[in-house]
Design goal:
The chain contains 6 helices and 10 strands; from the N terminus they run αββββββββαααααββ. By secondary structure, the chain is of the alpha+beta class.
Length: 255
C-alpha cells in the first residue's frame, strides 16, 4: 500500500494539472465518470494515503488500497486503468487497482490536516493527546491509526519502532513520556526521510527492520510476526526493542 510520502510524490508530479479542464474520463470504475467531464481542476491535494483532485463543487478521492498505482502522461501496457483523466492540454492521469470515490463536502470539513504527518499543519501535540486517550493501544496499531498518523503505513511503522527501540507489542500507556514523544516525532521524521530516499531511488537500501532478517545493532535474528488488531507484518528485535507493558505478556507472537 502506498504510504504518505509516495502520495506526496504523486501530488508533486500532478501539480501542473491544476487549472486544466477534464475533457474525457474513462476506465473500469463504477463511479459516474461523466460527472468529471468539463470540470476544471482547482487543485491536487493529499491527506495521508488519499490523493484528492479538488473540483469547483466536489472532489475526487483516489485510495490506492494494497496494490494500486498510477501513471502520469503514460499508460501501462495490457492493463486498463480504473480511471483515466484526460485534460484539454493533452495531459492525462491514469489510476490502477484503486478505489474511486466522490466527496461532495468541502475537503476542509472532511479532513483533519493536523493528523497528516506530511502536512505543514501537522500537530504533534494533538497526536500525543490522542495517543494518551487510548493507553491500551499497542504501539504497532497506534502508528497505523490514520486518525492519529495519517500517511503512516507498515514500512514506516516498522522502521520507527526500530529507531526508537520500542517493541511493537508495547502499550501506549506504558511508554515513558520520552519514548512516547519520540514515537510521535519519528513518525514524521521518518516519513520525510522516506520521501527523500524514495526520490533518490534508495529507499530499500535504508531499511533497518522492514523485511530484514538480522538486527544491525545486535547481530541477532529479527522476528517476523503478524501482530495487533491491524494484523500487519512486524519486523523487530526482541533484544534491543524493549517491551513496555502494564500487564504480563500472555504469549509469544505468532507468525
Amino acid at each position: 500500500m502506498p504510504e504518505g510520502p509516495s502520495l506526496v510524490i504523486l501530488r508533486e508530479q500532478a501539480a501542473g494539472f491544476a487549472g486544466q479542464t477534464i475533457v474525457r474520463a474513462e476506465g473500469n470504475t463504477s463511479a459516474d465518470k461523466k460527472r468529471l467531464e468539463g470540470q476544471r481542476i482547482v487543485a491536487v491535494r493529499t491527506w495521508g494515503k488519499h490523493f484528492l483532485v479538488e473540483l469547483p463543487h466536489f472532489a475526487l478521492r483516489i485510495h490506492f488500497l494494497l496494490f494500486g498505482s498510477y501513471r502520469v502522461n503514460e499508460r501501462k501496457d495490457h492493463s486498463p486503468p480504473r480511471l483515466s483523466l484526460q485534460c484539454d492540454s493533452g495531459d492525462e492521469l491514469n489510476f490502477y487497482t484503486c478505489s474511486v470515490k466522490f466527496i461532495d463536502e468541502p475537503l476542509d470539513a472532511v479532513y483533519d490536516w493536523q493528523a497528516d504527518v506530511m502536512s505543514d499543519a501537522w500537530n504533534p501535540a494533538l497526536a500525543l493527546k490522542r495517543l494518551r486517550a487510548a493507553p491500551d493501544t499497542l504501539a504497532c496499531d497506534a502508528l497505523l491509526d490514520q486518525d492519529v498518523f495519517a500517511g503512516v503505513g507498515n514500512i514506516i511503522k516498522n522502521e520507527v519502532l526500530y529507531r526508537i527501540r520500542v517493541h511493537p507489542l508495547s502499550t501506549v500507556g506504558a511508554l515513558p513520556a520520552a519514548q512516547l514523544r519520540a514515537l510521535v516525532a519519528q513518525a514524521r521524521q521518518y516519513s520525510f526521510d522516506f520521501l527523500a530516499w524514495k526520490k533518490d531511488f534508495v529507499l530499500k537500501q535504508h531499511w533497518l527492520a522492514h523485511r530484514q532478517s538480522v538486527c544491525r545493532r545486535c547481530d541477532l535474528p529479527l522476528t517476523k510476526a503478524t501482530l495487533g488488531k491491524t494484523r500487519r507484518q512486524s519486523y523487530f528485535c526482541s533484544h534491543c526493542q524493549r517491551l513496555y507493558s502494564d500487564a504480563p505478556r500472555a504469549a509469544a507472537p505468532g507468525g
